[in-house]
DNA sequence: ATGCCCTATGATATAGGA
């Protein structure tokens, strides 16, 4: 089974890219983030014509997550239990479903903006509630493979950004953020790390500005944390860097994980 | 070649992204 996660940066604006990518890569399950449209506006008919069911959770201009599957889509849950609000709103940043016997979550972790911004505390709180969710789900998952995939907006190590010296005042690399990943691992999850490219880290994001992609000024911030029953089935994991090339692409590339039987 | 920001919105600017 082939499972992917991709911050698509507007599912409506990216529809043709998405459909072509589904045909080329043939994933069984796709976790999408940053739909940037309301649930009703997600182009589920076009996605269905490509062979995929869709469970979406969006609310318009920002955020929005979905799970696409061609191997069944059951027990859909929207939002984390006790998911924190930002400015009075529980934002659409999490959706879970069971697809082909595997439980997956598609997550869009808050950005944080600046370390001193209230959004940063929101990010840490959100990740703490993710940890709580994972702790209770791992405890009852048994042999069912379970994974939390998505845009974590955290680079796990200094090597996961193109130049750590550029991040001295930035989010995504702070000890507080990285501690939330450690906490997530401590409930019984391991990170499924995509294999490196021949010449570099498998980054998953490159800014649109300042030739970041051609210069490979990237960040590895789209991550997958998995239980042992999931991780032991992983036969390969890679970043589909080709999806970032050319005009009109998302600024993120998909992470693709191959599960054996 | 991988190429000089992008998206959605009460839009002719603005917020957010990371």
Automatic annotation (TrEMBL):
GO terms for biological process: DNA repair. The keyword DNA-binding does not apply. Residues 4-252 form the Endonuclease/exonuclease/phosphatase domain. InterPro entries: AP_endonuc_1, AP_endonuclease_F1_BS, Endo/exonu/phosph_ase_sf, Endo/exonuclease/phosphatase, ExoIII-like. GO terms for molecular function: DNA binding; double-stranded DNA 3'-5' DNA exonuclease activity; endonuclease activity; metal ion binding. Its cofactor is Mg(2+). Keywords: Hydrolase, Magnesium, Metal-binding. Belongs to the DNA repair enzymes AP/ExoA family. NCBIfam families: exoDNase_III, xth. This is Unannotated protein.
């Amino acid at each position: 089974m082939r499972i992917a996660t991709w911050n698509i940066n507007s599912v409506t604006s990216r529809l043709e890219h998405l459909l072509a990518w589904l045909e080329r890569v043939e994933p069984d399950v796709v976790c999408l983030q940053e739909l940037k449209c309301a649930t009703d506006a997600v182009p589920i008919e076009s996605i269905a014509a490509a062979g995929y069911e869709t469970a979406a959770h969006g609310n318009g201009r920002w955020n929005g997550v979905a799970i696409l599957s061609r191997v069944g889509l059951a027990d859909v849950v929207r939002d984390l239990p006790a998911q924190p609000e930002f400015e009075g709103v529980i934002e659409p940043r999490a959706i879970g479903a069971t697809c082909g016997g595997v439980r997956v979550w598609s997550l869009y972790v808050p950005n944080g903006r600046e370390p001193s911004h209230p959004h940063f505390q929101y990010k840490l709180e959100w990740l703490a509630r993710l940890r709580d969710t994972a702790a209770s789900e791992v405890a009852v998952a048994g042999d069912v493979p379970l994974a939390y995939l998505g845009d974590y907006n955290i680079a796990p190590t200094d090597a996961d950004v193109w130049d750590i010296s550029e991040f001295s005042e930035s989010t995504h690399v702070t000890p507080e953020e990285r501690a939330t990943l450690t906490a997530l691992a401590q409930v019984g999850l391991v990170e499924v790390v995509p294999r490196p490219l021949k010449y570099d880290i498998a980054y998953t994001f490159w800014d649109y500005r300042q030739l970041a992609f051609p210069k490979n000024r990237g960040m590895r911030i789209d991550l997958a944390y998995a239980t042992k029953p999931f991780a032991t089935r992983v036969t390969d994991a890679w970043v589909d860097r080709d999806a970032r090339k050319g005009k009109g692409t998302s600024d993120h590339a998909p992470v693709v994980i191959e599960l054996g039987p």
